[in-house]
Amino acid sequence: MAAKIKLQRKGAKNKPFYRIIVQDESEARNGGAIEILGQYDPLKEPVVFTVDREKTLAWIAKGAMPTEKVRILLGKAGLLPPVDLAALHKRKPKKEVAEAAKPAAPAPGGPPAAVTPSEKEGGDPAPEKA
């Protein structure tokens, strides 16, 4: 069983708050938790992040891996070494992802377009139908 320390979403529509939980990694996001470690409320000013320090460090010692967001929060809370946010990968916008998936246009001066069999034989290309 591989355990993860992750966020479990709670709260009403457009008013989320999260529990920091230990969960088997194969469980669904809102599935059963092994243990509740704390809570995180990003909408309050200042942001509320409370976690049981001893339980969290015990689970990390047992091999539980925090998710990326929980790892950042634990770093800010001082439980783990801080994370360099500039070094993290950033998601690309959907437009960039879609453009990268399109095939590249042939470069000018590159290889010619496909040659038809009649052109290979030295004849004229097939006449176009109007």
TrEMBL record:
Keyword Ribosomal protein set for record: yes
Pfam family for this entry, one: Ribosomal_S16
UniProt entry keywords in alphabetical sequence: Ribonucleoprotein, Ribosomal protein
Tagged with keyword Ribonucleoprotein: yes
UniProt GO MF annotations: structural constituent of ribosome
Residues covered by region (Disordered): 91-130
InterPro entries assigned to the protein according to its UniProt record, in alphabetical order: Ribosomal_bS16 (IPR000307), Ribosomal_bS16_dom_sf (IPR023803)
Biased composition (Basic and acidic residues): 118-130
GO CC, any one term: small ribosomal subunit
GO-annotated biological processes: translation
NCBIfam families: S16
Annotated family: Belongs to the bacterial ribosomal protein bS16 family.
Protein name per UniProt: Small ribosomal subunit protein bS16
Species of provenance: Candidatus Saganbacteria bacterium CG08_land_8_20_14_0_20_45_16
